[in-house]
Write a structure and sequence with these properties.
The protein is an all-beta fold. Helix content is 0%, strand content 59%. The protein contains no helices and twelve strands. The two termini are 29 Å apart.
Length: 150
């Protein structure tokens, strides 16, 4: 609510579900998540949103390690979207959505295979992303999908 929201989470273990939801109700608020999850078969959902078109300050710094993990990040409405995501291990699913007035920025680092990545950025033009992933399999790698625009 009414003040800046900050979540710091560090978890170790397998077969867990972690959900973080942050909402801004005024234009001076920021939402910030610093998350680290280590283990197999984990599901992580992070949602940051505001109903205010001039609200700023959404930041996610997430690190998820080991196998068969899923990470979903939704940064919706308002401006100032930033996600820094690092995933390692095999069989990862990553879904990142940044919607609302610009700016948008995502920095993704992936290691281990296979990976299923979907990144969507939209709203009032400014959109930047960086994906660092080395694929070295004879049969090819799973798709990485990026969608930008209105």
């Amino acid at each position: 609510g009414s003040k800046s929201n900050y979540v710091k989470y560090a978890g170790n273990g397998s077969s867990n579900e972690v959900s973080v939801t942050e909402q801004a109700v005024n234009d001076t608020q920021t939402n910030y998540v610093d998350l680290s999850v280590n283990g197999n078969y984990n599901i992580v959902n992070i949602e940051q949103y505001t109903a205010l078109s001039n609200s700023f300050g959404k930041g996610v710094f997430a690190s998820v390690t080991d196998d068969n993990n899923s990470l979903t990040v939704n940064q919706l409405d308002g401006g100032s979207h930033y996600a820094n995501v690092n995933l390692s291990g095999g069989n990862k699913h990553v879904d990142i959505t940044q919607e609302g007035p610009a700016p948008h920025m995502t920095d993704i680092t992936l290691s281990g295979q296979p990976v299923d990545l979907s990144l969507r950025q939209s709203g009032a033009t400014q959109q930047f992303y960086s994906i660092n992933f080395n694929c070295a399999t004879a049969s090819g790698c799973a798709p990485i999908q990026v969608q930008q625009g209105q």
